[in-house]
Amino acid sequence: MNPCADSILAEVAAPGQVAAFSHWSADPDATSMDPERARATGVHHGTAEEVLRLAPDLVLAGAHTPAATRAVFARLGIPVVQVGVPASLAESHAEVRAIARALGRPEAGEALVARIEAALASAAAPGPPVPALVRTAAGVVPGDATLVSQVMARVGLANQSARLGLASWDVLPLETLVRRPPRLLLADARGPGHPVLAALAPSSGVVPLDMRLLNCGGPTIARLAQALAVARTGAGAP
To answer: Residue 205 pairs with which residues in a beta bridge?
Structure first.
């Protein structure tokens, strides 16, 4: 019942073990997994009635799953694993392991964690970190105490949000960005962005980033690490 749980489930479940994914995972604009796989497996829209018709042995719920819906599952004795929003790599790895254990496949969870760590190691770069910021089209910037910031650090990017006085997920005004541009700005790849971005100092590179990679932990981390490493290289860093 959560697209981030879907992306983990798609990696650790055995064939035939998934009854349905959430409908978000069939939407190319919202998914963190292969939408074709979600559609081929089947999706639901989050109602208790839909889920109960699938007769699941286990439900993976998110923080936004209504309490009343979870209460229905509890009343009927259907186990529910609550998936949160990890703020660190450690929390994300713990979530992967918890879901895999709930499926009776702890070895699949360990294998996925190992693949994520290998991707982070492969994306790492020598030398001093490159000062960088990630800014969504809405102007929101992930701060230091976020999973995104930890991934940035692992691949050789120094998140500049704290230097600009920003909190965990905070809005960075364009005026501040133009006055104090980072060496590397990762901006939303889905649109041309605000025209003022073209006025940034020549020393600041603007590189597009798929902002869907910020939505989840788990296997999405590997893709985020690769994208950040490509952006770092595109900005002229090693």
So the answer is: 184
* Distance in angstroms between the alpha carbons of the first and the last residue of the chain: 41
- Number of neighbouring beta carbons within 10 Å of residue 192: 11
Statement: residue 50 has pLDDT above 80? yes
CATH 3.40.50.1980 positions along the chain are: 3-120, 127-234
Which phi and psi (to 5°) does residue 152 adopt? -55, -45
Q: Which class in CATH covers the domain with range 3-120?
A: alpha beta
DSSP bridge pairs for 208: 187
Q: Which CATH architecture has domain 127-234?
A: 3-Layer(aba) Sandwich (3.40)
Which residues does residue 140 pair with via DSSP β-bridges, in sequence order? Answer: 171
Count of Cβ atoms closer than 10 Å to residue 43 Cβ: 19
pTM of the predicted protein model = 0.92
> Is the predicted pLDDT of residue 156 greater than 60, yes or no?
yes
Cα atoms in the 13 Å half-sphere on the side-chain side of 55: 0
In sequence order, what are the beta bridge partners of 62? 83
- Find the DSSP H helices in 83-180: 89-102, 106-123, 147-154, 174-179
Tokens of 125: 């770069």
- Alpha-carbon distance of 174 to 10, in angstroms, equals 38
